[in-house]
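Bumping with the actual sequence this time:
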Amino acid sequence: MRGGYDQHVIKGNAESGATSAIRYTDDMASLTADRLRGFFVDWPTAPSPQQHLAVLRGSHRAIVAIDEATDEVVGFVTMISDGVLTAFIPWLEVLPSHQARGIGSGLVARVLEGAERFYSVDLLCDAPLQEYYKRFGMVAVPGMTIHHRGALQGSD
């Protein structure tokens, strides 16, 4: 879907009962850093919006979810890959105000489109989130990581 757009209607939050259309796109060329605010909740240091934009643009695939009513970026997912056999999904995030409305699932489903050509598509998540990813055909495996927290530039 490089440069493509699609749209679907999701239910609003329980209090408002409203519905809004969410547009998904993998076209990062027109996205600006000022539209990437409010993400990385509970991170000790969040990436700056400029770092966030660079990550989206530098990924093998990146998809953002945009609320059509406000033109706000409300979610994103990234995939990095060697382009041959392996891929990794490092980030999936939906703004707290838009969670539990199917946006995350929409992002994961879209980033996985066409990924069956890879031998493996991996991601790391906390144990409580493993059930969420099982619905996409993923299975739990052991993993290791190193976090260099000093590499994060912090929000502006």
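The tokens above came from a reply further down the thread. Residues 49-58 form the longest helix (10 residues).
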